């Protein structure tokens, strides 16, 4: 059976709300795969340590039915930490990071095996991993192997200004846009890597300048999301108001994982298949993605993620 592979970070989120500080396993790539694993076999390429936090992360990965065959372990590293502060009014989150001995920064080119991509349909990447030359080269190798094997490349840059020098993450993202077929961006992110006075112009700029991109999904926070295809088709849906708003950690990852997973559940396994998808299926895909994001907001941090039956029943 075909599989989805994700490369990137796993970390521990310390979530601050008032005087409370709770700890949760997280990481954008992990969150995304936790959702796609409900639709298709999903594999994680990352590095963990042998510390208590890494053991907690490994348990979460397994509990979410994500395949661990491509996870490596190193006794000299530890799980990275972030502190997520939640805005008391908007419930949006901001992050501070502790990356000393961060395990995911130990990923290197040797961890990217060409055999991993056999029977693979989609390779999912981000940009948080690109904090050193070693991890940059590892992700670049994965993208080149994916291209050689006609594997779709999905890219969620997941901008984190606190981790990079000014302008550094934007330049790294642009390099990997050259490989991406499907891109997900937040409305606050697209202007960092594109040009234009409105969303439509910014999307056109990306299509015109990065020729492999065929699909762009834009999350619009409380306004829902918009989907753009290179063939000119556009789709949009409103957000679904959550019963209670706790925080927004993982919402974008879970929404995007739902979008990709739903398309895979319909057998859309190549870019040609995806572009031949009927309009009503694209509409369903973004509506389910928006519903998943709404459910995700109703509890602290990323896990547990929404169940499919709850998404479909909204």
Give an overview of the whole structure.
The chain has 314 residues and is α/β, with parallel strands linked by helices. The protein has 10 helices and 13 strands. The chain has helices at 28-36, 52-63, 133-148, 168-177, 190-193, 199-209, 251-265, 271-275, 279-296, 308-313, and strands at 3-7, 11-17, 20-26, 42-48, 71-73, 80-86, 93-98, 120-125, 152-155, 182-186, 215-219, 225-229, 234-237. The strands form 2 sheets. The chain has a 9-stranded mixed sheet with strand order 5-4-1-8-9-10-11-12-13, sandwiched between helices. Helix 1 packs parallel to helix 7 (251-265) and helix 7 (251-265) runs antiparallel to helix 9 (279-296). The longest helix is centred in the C-terminal third of the chain and has 18 residues, at 279-296. The radius of gyration is 18 Å and the shape is globular. It starts with a strand and ends with a helix.
Largest sheet: 9 strands, mixed
Cross-sheet strand order for the largest sheet:
5-4-1-8-9-10-11-12-13
> Into which percentage range does the β-strand content fall?
15-25%
* Extended strand count: 13
Helix proportion:
25-40%
Number of helices: 10
Question: How would you spell out the order of helices and strands?
Answer: EEEHEHEEEEHEHEHHEEEHHHH
Q: Quick one: overall form?
A: globular
What Rg is obtained from the alpha carbons, in whole angstroms?
A: 18 Å
